[in-house]
Design brief:
mainly beta
């Protein structure tokens, strides 16, 4: 099993920044063989893909809505993945979930079903 714990959420004004962290653990987890991703879910909406980083190439993938504003990165030594969020907008308000997958990715066409393990989520609220 893989355990994921997110942190770093909070309340920020529009235009501000936040950095989310996701710490992975578990006997089955090896950071260099797991791709990591971030999804978000706003009230009344479905969970949507935000960003991912493939374990094989290290290439990042982003949803169009966050491209140029968000950056995903990983520290394999710490088994941690980060989501740096800049120029935040009120529409970025959501619960953000970290996810892990044993698959390598080659595009940003990613869905919840592509990921096997999930964290509990962390709330991000952007005020206008």
């Amino acid at each position: 099993q893989v355990q994921l714990v997110e942190s770093g959420g909070g309340l920020v004004q529009a235009g501000g920044s936040l950095r989310l962290s996701c710490a992975a653990s578990g006997r089955a987890f090896r950071s260099y063989t797991y791709s990591m991703g971030w999804f978000r879910q706003a009230p009344g909406k479905e969970r949507e893909f935000v960003a991912a980083i493939s374990w094989s190439s290290g290439s990042p993938y982003y949803a169009d809505s966050v491209k140029g504003r968000f950056t995903i990165s990983r520290d394999n030594a710490k088994n941690t993945v980060y989501l740096q969020m800049n120029s935040l907008k009120p529409e970025d308000t959501a619960v953000y979930f970290c996810a892990a997958s044993p698959r390598a990715f080659g595009s940003s066409d990613l869905r919840e079903s592509d990921f096997a393990s999930w964290g509990q989520g962390t709330q991000v609220t952007v005020s206008s």
